[in-house]
Amino acid sequence: MRKLWLVGLVAASLGLSACGATATLNGAVASLGSSPDLQVHLTGAVSGDVSTAAQPVLSALSIDLNYSNPTGAPLAQSPGSANAEVVVNAGGAALIDIREVGGDVYAMLDVSALANIPSATLSSAETAALELLVGGRWFEFPASLISSYAPTGDAATMSKERQLSTQILDDLVALIDGTSYTTLSDGGYSQTGSLASVVKAVWPTIASVDPQGTMPSDVPGSYTVTVTTSGTTATGGSVSITAPNGTSGTERATLTATVAHANEAVIAPTGAIVVTRTLLQGLLAQAT
Question: Is the pTM of the predicted complex or chain greater than 0.85?
């Protein structure tokens, strides 16, 4: 959950810091963490001959990312301590709801929402069994239980991975900063560049890790980044990638986000079943 929070802010900063980092766009970046809460609604879309079958499924799905600071201070003032929630919606109903509150994780699965996804493959018997096992009930995974299962990685390796990720993000920021853009009449900007330029920008960093690798010579396709603002406040954005599908024509994938600050707190649900190691092992055995 913390990673989702960091990824969300980094992705937004990548787009919003582009184009010379103007005062308006810098203000949009700051607005993401200027309130005690943040709500991000994500939808996806694809188009093209190959991906046509996937579009009905994507149309039924969306994701909500919600964050709130339990102290009431702006999110930017307490990095890493916000309560967080991820909701996967199917046809407007919450299929999966996962919350992290004070280090504890809560999860709920609404099996009935699976019916809202076209071509759902579960049989009625499988759906009934899943509903009987976990359907409609909140489960609490205490922080101590999660820690007991979390892998303990080598500190030096983890530090190197973080440095690599940071450098790649720096490479992308430099690319976006150096690419022309179009100002939107209602606030924000749009920018289009080539996928080849993305590969070229990050390749030196990749080569520092894998000197034996060879940079691809032909990377067809393009990306488009769009950011919308109201004054200096971010209201949303999108990222689209268009590339040949390998047979005929092109494929296009788009991720769209809307941003709000609706004064909604992420809180622990009441009546959750506390999961112990024994209970977890039993649930996994039943699921198997």
Answer: no
Q: Which two tokens stand for residue 187?
A: 């606030």
In the chain, which ranges are E strands? 37-47, 61-68, 83-90, 93-101, 104-109, 138-141, 182-183, 188-194, 222-230, 233-244, 250-260, 273-274
Does residue 218 sit in helix, strand or coil?
A: coil
How distant is the alpha carbon of residue 5 from its chain centre?
Answer: 8
| Rounded CA separation 87/93 (Å) | 10
- Residue 268's φ and ψ, nearest 5 degrees, are -75, 135
Place of tokens 């530090």: 159
Strand-pair category, 138-141 with 182-183: unpaired
Count CB atoms within 10 A of the CB of residue 6.
12
- Asked if residue 25 lies in contact with residue 189, where contact means CB atoms within 8 angstroms, the answer is yes
**C-alpha span between 176 and 218 (Å, rounded):** 20
In order along its 288 residues, the chain shows pLDDT tens digits of: 444 444 344 444 434 444 443 444 556 667 888 899 999 999 999 998 777 778 888 999 999 999 999 999 998 887 778 999 999 999 989 999 999 999 999 999 988 888 888 877 777 777 777 777 777 889 999 999 888 877 666 667 777 877 888 888 788 878 877 788 888 888 888 889 999 999 999 999 999 988 888 888 889 999 998 888 888 788 998 999 999 987 778 899 999 999 999 999 999 999 999 998 888 787 677 666
